[in-house]
Amino acid sequence: MIKHTFILVLFLSFLGCNQVKKQKEQPFQKYHQTIDSLMQVSADRGIFNGNILVTKNDSIVYQKSFGYTDGSQKNKLTEKSIFSPGSIAKEFVAVSIMMLVEQGNLNLEDKISRFNLGLPEWSEKVTVKHLLSFTSGIPQINYETIKNESDILKDLQQLENLLFEPGSDVNYNNNSIFLQKKIIEDITKKTFQDFAKENIIVPLKMKDISFDPGYDYPNRVRCFNVHKENTEESVITKGWIWLSINDLNKWITALHNYKLISKASLEKLLVNQFFENKKCIMGSSNKTFTMHQHGGQFHQFEAAFVSEFKDDLNVILMSNNKNQAFEIILSLYNIMKDKSFTLPKRSIYRQIRSKCHEDIDLGIQYYKELKATELAIYNFESPNELNALGYDLLNSKKINESIGIFKLAISEFPDNANLYDSLGEVYFTDKQYDLSLLNYKKSLVLNSNNANAEKMIKKIHSLVKK
Question: How far apart are CA 217 and CA 198, in angstroms?
Fold first, then answer.
């Protein structure tokens, strides 16, 4: 009798342990199924080609690859596929700077004239902190004339004036990243790549990672457009990191557990040191530094992550076919937080883009036809879709076409202050100052906090007076 009782107790204990185990597994299983359904819809709708990874408490909640390594669609992606993370790669540069600060080799208040770069007098006013916050007044790289790193340095050495007094405004630019790398190299007497390998890549045991890999590099993917054509991937600066989604997860986890730099140093990077709520080199964080999110784009590459320190939650996406990454990752994050989420729709911008470049009237007509027949499939709800297309056309120097799209956007979203601001910018570019002024004023009426509109209104008044 005692023997049978003992066996029964063991059996019940076994059932109890299994039940506890199932209870622990169940939340992850629930998230896994919901995420998989969302991603299958995204893949079926042709709006996601890439890799997804969700981790919580060092455990994988969901990991899967969708789609192909390039436009030919011959080879499928794997978890070892290497992508460009776009601006997320700038985090490696900023953290390297803070490592040198913690080592006592650098101070954020150091003037960049300290370094052997041959820069003009304005370098006496620009600090390392200005570079990290994009508040130096140094302009963006002139990609029309600059062909290599030698050209970049020469152009900076010949720069007579800054765009504004350092610390008085923000101008997001890659010249600041270039100079940070040069500072690292001047201090360490090593290339930025070698410094990062020794201090980041090797210690974190990153395996699927490379700097500036060629097309034939193992597992390196190509980016492609909506027409499944491999697109340009040129870059004139060196030392850009490409990596797999697993290695990006290692980076995020190490960063948020202060394995690379201290908590105090990380918090300095997670905010703009000069302007509240302005872009910083690490993306963005909340005021309590318990969340970190960042997105990056490079040609048709797109990457994004949302990470919570407290819950040890990482939601990461990497794509080689730029589409709805930021909408998708928001839905994934909401799933993990047990919040409501939306199924992503196809991008109307990407769908009508080529027609708008060929013939703006046909492009706008196509937009209206799709809205009448495919409202549930395409994203007509977000003003950012048409705003992005307007700037796409503007950047291609198609002024009239850009104006046409912004007018369409305003007719669709008449209360959106940003769209009036955008149309004001196009008219200003075309030197139609009266129409530019009209739209900036309308934007300011809709959003009284629009500092850019205020600045541009003053600028236009000044130009007209002359």
Answer: 21
Q: Which amino acid is at 440?
A: Y
Question: How many DSSP H helices and E strands does the chain contain?
Answer: 16, 10
| Positions of the chain with pLDDT lower than 70, given as ranges | 1-27, 466
| CATH fourth-level superfamily of 346-465 | Tetratricopeptide repeat domain (1.25.40.10)
Please answer whether residues 387 and 419 qualify as being in contact, where contact means their C-beta atoms are separated by less than 8 angstroms.
yes
Q: What pLDDT shows up at residue 241?
A: 97
CATH classification code of 86-241+249-290: 3.40.710.10
CA distances 16 to 6, 10, 19, 192, 289, Å, are 15, 10, 5, 55, 39
Kind plus residue range of the DSSP H or E element containing 242: strand 241-243
pLDDT computed for residue 20 by the predictor: 36
* pLDDT per position as a tens digit, 123-153: 999 999 999 999 999 999 988 888 899 999 9
- Whole-number Å distance between alpha carbons of 257 and 31: 24
In sequence order, which residues have a C-beta less than 8 Å from that of residue 306 and are 6 or more positions away? 291, 292, 293, 313, 314, 315, 329, 330, 332, 333
Q: Do domains 86-241+249-290 and 346-465 have the same CATH topology?
A: no
Instruction: Supply the pLDDT for residue 151.
Output: 94
Q: Round to whole Å and give the CA distance between 375 and 393.
A: 24
| Per-residue model confidence (pLDDT) at position 92 | 98
What is the number of other CB atoms lying within 10 angstroms of the CB of residue 432?
16
Two tokens at 188? Answer: 């360490």
Residue 25, pLDDT score? 47
- Domain ranges in the chain are 86-241+249-290, 346-465
Question: For residues 108 and 101, is the Cβ–Cβ distance under 8 A?
Answer: yes
Query: For residue 26, what pLDDT is reported?
Result: 56
Strand partners, 293: 284, 306
At 404, is the secondary structure helix, strand, or coil? helix
Which ranges of 227-382 would DSSP assign to H, the alpha helix?
Answer: 245-256, 263-269, 325-336, 348-358, 360-373
Query: Which DSSP symbol is given to 214?
Result: -
Can you tell me the distance from the alpha carbon of 254 to that of 261, in angstroms, rounded to the nearest whole number?
Answer: 9
Report in angstroms the alpha-carbon separations of 255 from 44, 91, 223, 312. 35, 10, 28, 12
